[in-house]
Structures are given as C-alpha cells and as structure tokens.
Amino acid sequence: MPPACGAALAAKRLGKDSVAVAFFGEGAANQGTFHESLNLAGLWKLPVIFVCEDNKWAISVDKDHSTAIPCVADRAAAYAMPGIAVARNDALEVFKAAGEAVARARKGGGPTLIEVKTDRYMGHFQGDAEVYRPKGEVDQLRKDDPIPALAGVLRARGLLDDGKDATMHGRVHADVSKAFDFARQSAYPDPREALEHVFA
Ligand SMILES: Cc1ncc(C[n+]2csc(CCOP(=O)(O)OP(=O)(O)O)c2C)c(N)n1
Ligand SMILES: [Mg+2]
Predict the structure, then answer these.
(1) Domain containing residue 106
(2) I need a labelling partner for 144 at 20 to 30 A (CA). Which of 56, 83, 189, 199 fits?
(3) DSSP secondary structure of the chain
C-alpha cells in the first residue's frame, strides 16, 4: 500500500494518467500501513485504488476474531474516499467497480477502497495443515468459483463457446509455462541488490 501511494504521487506530479493499484488481504487491512496509506491518499487525492480481498482468513485467524467491523470498505469514510463492497465472487461487479475507480482517479477525484468478498482455497503457505478450518470447507467454496461462473455468463450472452474457451485456456497455459521456464532459467539476483532502495 505505501509503494502504491508513492507511484500514485509520482504519476500525479508528472502529470501522467497512470493509476496505482494495491492488492492485499483483509488481515493486512488491520495493519498500520493500511491506515497510514489511506489517510495520505485521501488527503492528497492520489490516483490509487486499494483492493482488499476478503477471504475471511488471515493465515489461521478468521475475520470475526480479528476485525472489529464486518465490512472493511466502511473504513473508507474515515479517509475521505468512496468505499465499495463487491458481492462475493462476482467478477462483473469487480470489473464495474474497478472501471469507476480508475475513471475517478484519472479525473482527479482521488482514491477508492474496493473490498471484494472471495474465498481462500489453499493454506496461507505451502505445508499449512489447515487444522483451523473444517474439513470439506474448500469443496463447498469451490462450488461458487467465480471463473466458471463468469464463463457461464459469457456463454449465456453468446460471447464464449467451446472453441474460444479452448483457445483462451491454451494461450494462458502457454504464457504461464513461458514465465515458469524464464524464472527457472534465470540467474539468482546479486545479493547486493537486497540493499538497493533501502534507506536506513
Ligand atoms: C508488515 C507485516 N506485518 C506482519 C506480517 C505477518 N503476516 C504475514 S501474513 C499476515 C496476515 C495475512 O492475512 P491476509 O491479508 O488476510 O492474507 P491471507 O492469509 O488471506 O493470504 C500477517 C499478519 C507481515 N508479513 N508483514
Ligand atoms: Mg485473508
């Protein structure tokens, strides 16, 4: 969130129409940098969008045990910006809210906080035994997966068919494989790079 504010401030000062976007979880929204970033972004009307992905779990702590209010988007009022809560797993609503936020930022209207309700299918880290949530929870959640749901909407509107679906999947798999191979074949960074852009 703070680097997104920095990028937004740079865009504003340079007169560019870029909009910075920061993605973070509902757990991260309870940390100090969330409030510090939203305060300055609201005060300086920065072209930045804060996207909180509320998947109900912060590592192993559920939201009811970590967060004083159910809706993180309500916090936007304290920082002079609109707060939009998007219904769970609704891709088209995300698209709409994001489009409006980008347009507002480009017009000089400042930041937006968007909260998207979604689900977490995996543990927080590799090897997380997930003993904190009931067995079978993920199987239930997957029934509301937004990606097949969006495909269903597009098919119903005549915008997607089997051929286009296969082409798109092929293209995405190829892009991911290429990125994976590039990462595997790349040299490790020079350890000295760890100290770049660090001010102490
Ligand atoms: C500045 C900072 N403080 C604390 C942590 C420790 N930490 C790692 S993940 C996490 C909670 C993340 O919860 P959420 O944002 O909901 O992410 P999710 O578990 O859904 O992936 C915390 C507090 C951290 N990584 N960085
Ligand atoms: Mg979370």
Answers:
(1) 2-126
(2) 83
(3) -HHHHHHHHHHHHHT----EEEEEETTGGGSHHHHHHHHHHHHTT-SEEEEEEE-SEETTEEGGGT-SSS-GGGGGGGGTS-EEEEPTT-HHHHHHHHHHHHHHHHTT---EEEEEE----S-SSTT---TTS-TTHHHHHHTT-HHHHHHHHHHHTTS--HHHHHHHHHHHHHHHHHHHHHHHHSPPPPGGGGGTT---
